[in-house]
Amino acid sequence: MSQFQQDIDAIATLKATQKGAWEGINPDFAARMKAQNRFKTGLDIARYTAGIMRKDMAEYDADPGQYTQSLGCWHGFVGQQKMLSVKKHQGTTSKSYLYLSGWMVAALRSEFGPLPDQSMHEKTSVPALIEELYTFLRQADAQEMGKLFKQLDAARQQGEDTSAIQAQIDNFETHVVPIIADIDAGFGNEEATYLLAKKMIEAGACCIQIENQVSDAKQCGHQDGKVTVPHEDFLAKINAVRYAFLELGVDDGVIVARTDSLGAGLTQKIPVPTAPGDLAAQYNAFLATTEVNSAQDLNEGDMAMKLNGKLVKPTRLPNGLFRFKDDTGVARVVLDCITSLQHGADLLWIETEKPHVRQIADMVDAIRKVVPDAKLVYNNSPSFNWTLNFRQQVFDEWQQEGRNVAAYDRSKLMSAEYDSSELAQLADDKIQSFQRDAAREAGIFHHLITLPTYHTAALSTDNLAKGYFGAEGMLAYVKGVQRKEIREGLACVKHQAMAGSDLGDTHKEYFSGEAALKASGKDNTMNQFDM
C-alpha cells in the first residue's frame, strides 16, 4: 500500500473518532495536502538532503563520471524555476543542487543595497535566503502534485484506469535538493560561526562552505588583498559548524573547507608553535623573513622570531599584516586541504585564478597522496574569461607542439574575428567537456557557477529593454519572451498559477466546497494559454 493511501486510511480512522465534528474534512483531500508538503521543517530538509549528498559522494568515489552540478540562485523563484527546468529537461533532479552564493547575497539581498563580497551584508540574510529557496521548491512540489491529483480526479470521473497516475503520485520526485550554502569566513569568531551555522541548518542547509580568510578582512576570492588565518583558527570554525550539525541532529551534514591561499599573500597573525613541525610551525615556515644578526637589524617596533634555528624578522606591511614568501601558494593550498580533511571537513574548495584542469589536478594529486578520497567543490566562476582562457590554452598547446600559430595574436584571441577559426572551435570543445574532464582528472565532485543568474538577469533585461524602448516596442516582449515561454513549455507563462492561484483555488474548494470563490474561472485571462 502506498504512503498516500496509508495517509487516507489513517485520517479516515482519526475522523471517525471525532463523533461527527470533522464531517467537513475529506480524508483524501487531507492526504493530498500532506503529500504536497512532504517536508514540515527545515531540519527535515537538511537531514534528507544530507543523505542525498552522502550517497552522491559515495557514487562519485566509485565512478568520477557521477559528478554533481549546481547554479547559484539569489531568489526563491530563480531556484524554483531552475529545478522545474532541470526536472523537465533531464527527467530527474538527481545530481542537481542549488548554490547559495555569499557574493550574490551581498550584491542583491542586503538592506544596505548592493555591496561588495566582503562580509558586509547582514548575516541573517543568508539563512533567510535558504528558507526562501526551500519555500519555493516546496511550492513547486505542491503545484506539480496538484496537477497529478487533477488528472486522477478526471480519470476517476471518466471511469478510466488510474493505476499509472497513482504510480506517479506514489513515486513523485521532489524538487527539494541539497543547497551548498556559503557562510563566508564565518561572520566573526568561532562562536559567531556556530550561531549562524545553526540558523542556516535550521533553514534547511545540509552543506556549509567556509573559507580560511580573516572574517573582518574578507575579500571575494577573485579580488586582491586576501588575508588567511592560521590553521588552528580555521579548524576551530570547522569544529563550530560540526557541533551545530550534531546539536541539531543532522549527523551526516557536509562541510566544505575552502582555501584562498593560492591567491592570498598575507596573514593577519603569526601562530605560536608548541612543538617542532606542528601546524603553527608549518604555517610560519611560509612567511617572508629577513635574517637578524644583531639588534641593529631591527627598527623601532620590529619583531623577531626564531624560525628553523635562525633569528629572523617577518616582513610586515604598514597595516600590520605579514607577507608570505612568493611562489608558496600551491604548497599552502595543499597543506590547507590536507589539514582540513584530517580535522573534520568533508569536501574541499580550491579557489583558482583560471579554469585549468592540469593546474587543479596537480594540487589534488598532491593532496590525495595523504588523503586518497579527497574531493573538490569547484567554482566555474564568471570571474574567469572562459573564452580567452581556453583559446590561450589551445594556442599554448599548439605552440608547444610546433604548430604554426602565426595567424593568431595570443593577446587578442577574445576578438570575434577568431570565432569561426579552428582554434576557437577546439577551445569551445574544451569548455564543453571541462566539467567532465575535471571530474575525471582533477577530483572535482561538484561543479557550480557561483553567480550565473545575476548575469542572466542582466542580459535578459538588457535584451528586452533594448527592443521594447526601441523600434520593436511590444514585439520585443512578445517575440523575445512570451512566445518563447509558450513554445518551450515554461510553466511560468501562466504566472498567476505559478504564484499560487490554482493551488489556492484547490484549497478553497477543500475548505468551502461548492461555495468557494475561485480565481480560475472562465474569465481568467490565463486560460488563453491553455493550448
Descriptors for this entry?
isocitrate lyase activity; 531 residues; single chain; globular; metal-binding; 47% helix; 3 domains; Pyrv_kinase-like_dom_sf; alpha/beta; metal ion binding; TIM Barrel; three-stranded mixed sheet; 14 strands; 19 helices; eight-stranded parallel sheet
Distance between the termini: 36 Å
Report the principal-axis shape.
globular
Mean pLDDT: 93
| Beta strand count | 14
Could you name the CATH class of the largest domain?
Answer: Alpha Beta
Catalytic activity: D-threo-isocitrate = glyoxylate + succinate
InterPro entries: ICL/PEPM, Isocitrate_lyase, Pyrv/PenolPyrv_kinase-like_dom, Pyrv_kinase-like_dom_sf
Protein name: Isocitrate lyase
GO molecular function, one term: metal ion binding
Describe this protein's structure:
The protein has 531 residues and is an alpha/beta fold. The protein has three domains: 1-37; 38-287 and 324-450, TIM Barrel (Alpha-Beta Barrel); 474-528, no CATH class. It is built from 19 helices and 14 strands. The strands form three sheets. The chain has an eight-stranded parallel β-sheet. Strand 9 (305-307) and strand 10 (310-314) form a beta hairpin. Helix 2 packs antiparallel against helix 6 and helix 11 (329-342) crosses helix 12. The longest helix is centred in the first third of the chain and has 33 residues, at 125-157. It starts with a helix and ends in a 19-residue tail after the last helix. The active site is at 220 (proton acceptor). GO terms for molecular function: isocitrate lyase activity; metal ion binding.
